[in-house]
Amino acid sequence: MSSEPPAPLSGAAPDEGTPVSVKIRERLNAARRRFHANDNIAEFIQPGELERLLDEVEAKMQGVLDSMVIDTAGDHNTQATARRVAKMYLNEVFKGRYVQPPAITEFPNAEHLNELMIVGPVTVRSACSHHFCPVIGKIWIGVLPNEHTNVIGLSKYARLVDWVMGRPQIQEEAVVQLADLIMEKTQPDGLAIVMEASHFCMSWRGVREMDSKMINSVMRGVFLTNPTLRREFLALIPRRS
């Protein structure tokens, strides 16, 4: 009797049994790319792999429920919870990690606009990296264009906010990521961002402080050097709740 192992099935991939998360991580490591919670990794995910990643997360989430001693077989309320949570994380609340940035049409500043423009409030729906608890709030964006600035539609600011915030975030890092992205897309003379948010990791757990909010800002370009412009931006923001 031969002791040689059976030949692999025709057409079977040599790494067919490797979890898709491992393959994605290997590509990231090979490219020396960071994959922190608030990083976008879409370029390292191949077609069809997001669906397989969903299956993998569902299986791991089922293990979490089992370890929490929840009878998902007998409890009709939690029978599909593992799948629902996996879909929520990958397709909704953390979608900004797994999809390419939204398509942004940029137009030349034909009229040479150079006055302060403010967009907001734009709704923030995110989650903290520490506990995956919701972070809900608002953002105001101030832009001072120049003749070379790329002009983008108002709705595109909301799409960029949604893409950056749709990941586990720390608020002070999130506004910096957003500022970097808008500066890259529009190249203005100045950019100002103010974010105000409630953190459920404070109100739902921990100290359970219901009314506390965090407010922070990022100033770029002339907003850093021109205090009059900075005061004008802050004065024009409607009274925050």
Automatic annotation (TrEMBL):
GO terms for cellular component: cytoplasm. GO terms for molecular function: GTP binding; GTP cyclohydrolase I activity; zinc ion binding. The keyword Hydrolase applies. Keywords: Hydrolase, One-carbon metabolism. Its EC number is 3.5.4.16. It comes from the Bacteria. GO terms for biological process: one-carbon metabolic process; tetrahydrobiopterin biosynthetic process; tetrahydrofolate biosynthetic process. It holds the Pfam family GTP_cyclohydroI. Pathway: Cofactor biosynthesis; 7,8-dihydroneopterin triphosphate biosynthesis; 7,8-dihydroneopterin triphosphate from GTP: step 1/1. Residues 59-237 form the GTP cyclohydrolase I domain. It catalyses: GTP + H2O = 7,8-dihydroneopterin 3'-triphosphate + formate + H(+). It is an enzyme of class 3 (hydrolase). PANTHER family: GTP CYCLOHYDROLASE 1, GTP CYCLOHYDROLASE I. This is GTP cyclohydrolase I. It comes from Diaphorobacter nitroreducens.
